[in-house]
Amino acid sequence: MTDRRALGTQGLDVSAQGLGCFGMSEVYGSTDDAESVATIHRALELGVTFLDTADVYGAGGNERLVGKAIAGRRDEVELATKFGNEWNPDGSLGEINGRPEYVRAACDASLLRLGVDVIDLYYQHRVDDTVPIEETVGAMSELVEAGKVRFLGLSEAGPQTIRRAHAVHPITALQTEWSLWSRDAEAEILPTVRELGIGFVAYSPLGRGFLTGSHRSADDFGDGDRRRELPRFQRENLERNLCLADEVRSLAEQKGVTAAQVALAWVHSRGADVVPIPGTKRRRYLEENVRALALELADDELRHLDETFPPGVAAGDRQPDMSTVNR
Asked: Could you give the CA distance from residue 308 to residue 209 in angstroms, rounded to a whole number?
């Protein structure tokens, strides 16, 4: 894969598809560090150089894992991480924290865990509504001045927050969930970032694996798989949503490709300013996902998908607590 994208208008160049590393350390069942490192190495071989992690993933463990995988290969990678979600001593999720002193401490801790001198893209993971965004981004901009961070990003921020942040320091990327069954960002957020020249990073472009068609029952998820807690995977919602996944699978079968490739190709069709970061912890799924870059959906196929998946079509919220998104 050689496709590249300009992410935002400040000069950050990334692979056209990234790799979400979250699931390598928690959330989706059992983990295998050796296979995860091998997956990252295979990603680099395939030209997938935009790696996404966060300090809260695995209570810091995911950053250490990514750091281990890129040791000696730092120049091959566009490295993105996030701060803002604190974790408790037992590893559970704590409070959202956007205070300037926390921003600085969190960045230093991430640099240490990752084993790098600079973070290419540093996101505020969730907006702290108790701290003015100007204060948080002001502290983030100091990290750029100090040479610890190259570009700034926001995750799950609303239009007005994005505008206020961008007025303090240019925001390079906005990361939000976007897929066939999560299209709420299209109403206000996407027009805002496009007006401001901010790139869009789409996380969970495969609907947390649901759009691949491989999950037909809540029993498909093992112990420790957080999808058991998500509203869209609850039994009554899951049954309704299966019809949506079947539409993607049907089109994939007609084209001789996988449902995952169709779902990713749809996201890629949204524009050159959009970079999806499908997550996987296995090389075989990584390779399958990369092949989506070569898949072009015809106009009538895109139209069919848009009509089948209008915004709001999925049964159930995308997060258990929607109060922390699009602030």
From this structure: 18
